[in-house]
Amino acid sequence: MGSKFWKSPHFYGSWGLNTAAVTTLRNEVHRVRRAAINPLFSRKVVLDLEGIVQSKVQKLCQRLSETLRVGKPMDLHHGFRAVSVDVITDYAFDNCYNLLDRPSLGAEFFAVIRGMTPALWIFQQLSTMLPPWLMLRMSPESAGFVQFQLVNAAYPNHFLCYSEYC
Q1: What CA–CA distance (Å, rounded) separates 11 from 124?
Q2: Cβ contacts of residue 19 below 8 Å, gap of 6+?
Q3: pTM for this prediction
Q4: What's the Cα-to-Cα distance from 27 to each of 4, 9, 75, rounded to whole Å?
Q5: How many CB atoms lie within 10 A of CB 149?
Q6: Taking burial as the number of CB atoms within 10 A of a residue's CB, which of 26, 88, 132, 157 is the most buried?
Q7: One-character DSSP codes across 104-121
């Protein structure tokens, strides 16, 4: 922030998100793009999110009550993470992933994210040099990242979410 240096085209270009604020290389363009989304994060707008946050927390509390009533344990680790993902996807994409509605509370979603994270740093550096089939052969866990890149290359102006959760 405040740096006169641009972001690395090799590093940020590997995402294939040429129109996103976070991957914008030039500082002047980033300022313009960031200014366009700043109103979404104003104090008033964030406070207006309370209804979304409360509804997700209430859903978790209902799940917890039902689980306690039948005397079973509940995975609060994934429950809290599911609240976060559901709030973010509901607000940011207007397309909630509804992980709180899944019996596993989205444990498989988080496993995919956790599984591809170690390979992500390597493949982000090599993605412009390796064909997708080889990336998948080297790390099957990177399938989400490879799919993300392929779809964004084919449809650069569309947002891609993990299709199983959209």
Answers
A1: 7
A2: 156, 157
A3: 0.65
A4: 7, 13, 43
A5: 22
A6: 132
A7: TTTHHHHHHHHHHHHHHH
- Which two three-digit tokens encode residue 88? 């973010």
- Distance (Å, whole) CA 153 – CA 8: 19
Please give the torsion angle defined by the CA atoms of residues 84, 89, 94 and 95, in that order, rounded to the nearest 10 degrees: -120
**58 CB neighbour count, 10 Å cutoff:** 11
Kindly give, in sequence order, each residue whose CB lies less than 8 Å from that of residue 57, ignoring residues fewer than 6 positions away: 83
Radius of gyration of the chain, Cα coordinates, nearest whole angstrom: 19
Cα–Cα distance for residue pair 78/13, rounded to 1 Å: 32
Q: What proportion of the chain, given as a percentage, has pLDDT over 70?
A: 64
* 1-50 pLDDT tens trace: 666 766 666 666 666 666 666 677 777 787 788 888 788 888 998 898 89
pLDDT in tens, 62-79: 999 999 999 999 999 999
Q: What does the pLDDT read at residue 92? A: 83
Half-sphere exposure in the Cβ direction for 133 (13 Å, CA): 0
16 CB-contact burial (10 Å; exposed 0-12 / middle 13-18 / buried 19+): buried
